[in-house]
Amino acid sequence: MSKKEGANKNIKSRAPTESDVAKVAGVSQSAVSRAFTPGASVAQSTREKILHAARSIGYQPNLLARSLATRRSNIIALAISNLENPFYAQVVKELSEQLAETGRHILLFTTNAEEDENQALEQALSYQVDALVMAASKASIELTMQCQKAGVPIVQINRETRLPGISTVWGENQRAGELVAAFLHASKHEEYAFVAGTKDSTISQMRQKGFIEYLSSVGKKDVKIVYGDYTFETAAIVARQLLEVEKRPDAIFCASDYMAFAVIDVATREFGLDVPNDLSVIGVDNVPESAHSAYDLTTFSQPAGSLVQEAIIIIDKMIADPGRRAIRCEVAGDLIVRGSAKRPKTGFVNNVTNKIWLP
Amino acid sequence: MSKKEGANKNIKSRAPTESDVAKVAGVSQSAVSRAFTPGASVAQSTREKILHAARSIGYQPNLLARSLATRRSNIIALAISNLENPFYAQVVKELSEQLAETGRHILLFTTNAEEDENQALEQALSYQVDALVMAASKASIELTMQCQKAGVPIVQINRETRLPGISTVWGENQRAGELVAAFLHASKHEEYAFVAGTKDSTISQMRQKGFIEYLSSVGKKDVKIVYGDYTFETAAIVARQLLEVEKRPDAIFCASDYMAFAVIDVATREFGLDVPNDLSVIGVDNVPESAHSAYDLTTFSQPAGSLVQEAIIIIDKMIADPGRRAIRCEVAGDLIVRGSAKRPKTGFVNNVTNKIWLP
Fold it and tell me: Using the beta-carbon criterion (under 8 Å), do A265 and B67 form an inter-chain contact?
């Protein structure tokens, strides 16, 4: 029996260690350690020999043990709800892919009620995550304080809140409302409605504010507000309520593309309306589905990739300098013009991928 | 200064421990330990006192340290691609919610190319995950062997492969193809086409097999096969190729709902066809969007919640008995009848939520 086979045999009864790999590969234990540390220096041929030896005996570097030593787990907790909304599926995908570039991964917490969420997030903290990203989801003050005590930075994506110590990345919510109102007013609509998200959604409130204030400034003070709760089902219900009255709106702005899809479905299939000739519908987000010709939705874009990118920059700044103040960051969007709303005569510009409205 | 305040003050300079919490709460350290162990016995009033003390000093139980001791992390790695397909967004949501019921969470790996994936999964193993779930994603033989050596069970969702040691959960793929063919043949179609997924997708192959074999048995041997690669964009391209020839199909079966949406978009918007009068389109999955009236898609269901439920049962069996053989499990679906395909005269049954076809 060769020396290697002997080493192989002795370690079969317990989990293999770095030292076992070193024996099988015929290298030092520190070489094995370096081979499994991202960025550490070790010759390519040595690394291959070590990886081969590790595989042959079933050795796995224990990142948990390393996390305990370094207090860095390279795990980022993501608390998210509304995964059925394609915008949040995009956020998950973007965050996962962008974090993977630096060897980090998402520990996922899907949440519904606020209570569940705080419990889930307490669990996240106990995994020694490096940071907490919250999307379509809200933190209690208590939880926030707990994270600050534990030195774990929190970044919210897509909420305009100003809780102490919480960094946030959001889109141009108020401008979205203003620009959509200007677009609809320039294309001569008469009766306006806004399908809001949930009542406590800050981004929905800001979109509504921009929409209402612009319309009010041009003399349209009678805008109907209904709550679609960000779900397809509730948006369909409130769309029916809006459309079944005699003096129905000819322009509906929705706080998300996903709700706009429900409004278009109800208007065309149940009320036989032509979009946009009888009814203009505009959303927010620019999810991939909004470009599908079944909806062909005019929408104010909220680029998930850019929001995630800014969130990661903030996380890295907060980790590098834990004493840093919370950072708030707005990512610009565009009013992307497609076929679901009547168009003004002027103001169009072609950017790289889309026709946008810039009056 | 009270005793509690003194305890509070002394521990400010380092991370608080169980013993610090015990001092502040005025209980034993073992009570603190029990309070943070799911299912362990401790009086509710004591637990509350301990949780309050823990929060006041910023203590977090260290699940990583506990994982090292117990060799159970309560983390399940999920490797997934195609998150833009709502079926896989559903799988993520279901897996996350169902695992949360037993205090477990997903460590997410979104993958594209095969190479990336193996690298990502090696990293997953080093986090001492309890199991690996793979959805829309494939493992190499090498990786499989590595997981087996490390004692980490792998479960594939939605792949009909028979790799040694890998458990799998899939839908009724061949029956889906057969039943869709029977439905389309009974409603008197003439020219058939199949929009497959990727060339190496086993589930697409099984759906194709069922579809082609049934049609062949009734004398329809000339079925066009094109590859939509499971993406919206490629499905739209191959739909154009199918529809621009003179003798175009009047029945198209797609290996996923998501590709069927692309086919409907192209057929109605670009070719001015009426669905279903000029063209019947049927998908597989029954994603929530297929019920939206913009698509109103007839589809063979593949219930994400049930697939995930079976996957978790398998994981638990494999963890309880590591010597256990791989388990393969098929979850039944139904042909759900909506408006995107011409219907046969008979064979309809109403189940709880849908009209289904059971000839």
Answer: no
The DSSP bridge pattern shows strands A154-157 and A105-110 to be: unpaired
What residues have CB less than 8 Å from B352, skipping those under 6 apart?
none
Interface test with B, best of A292, A297, A338 (most B CBs within 10 A): A292
What's the token pair of residue B13? 């300079």
Interval A231-258: pLDDT, tens: 999 999 999 999 999 999 999 999 999 9
Element at A5 (helix H, strand E): helix A3-10
Question: Mapping DSSP to helix (H, G, I), strand (E, B) and coil, where does residue A340 land?
Answer: coil
Q: With beta carbons under 8 A apart, name residues in chain B contacting A63.
A: 123, 126-128
Distance of CA B342 to the CA centre of its chain: 30
The whole-model pTM stands at 0.83
Does B294 contact A265 at a Cβ distance shorter than 8 Å? yes
SS3 A86: helix
Residue with token string 């309050």: B52
Residues 6 or more apart whose CB falls under 8 angstroms from that of B110 comprise: A92, A93, A96, A97, A100, B79, B80, B81, B83
Residue A262 pLDDT = 97
ipTM score above 0.85: no
Position B57 scores a pLDDT of: 82
Distance from C-alpha of A135 to C-alpha of A125, rounded to nearest angstrom = 17
Question: How far apart are the C-alpha atoms of A15 and A13, rounded to whole Å?
Answer: 7
Tell me if residue B193 falls in helix, strand or coil: strand
Ranking A129-143, A189-203, B237-251 by mean pLDDT, the lowest is: A129-143
**pLDDT confidence of residue A65:** 63
Which one-letter amino acid corresponds to residue A338? R
CB A309 within 8 A of CB A332: no
Residue A244 tokens, joined: 């079944």
Chain B residues within 8 A of A64 when measuring between CB atoms: 64, 67-68, 73, 127-128
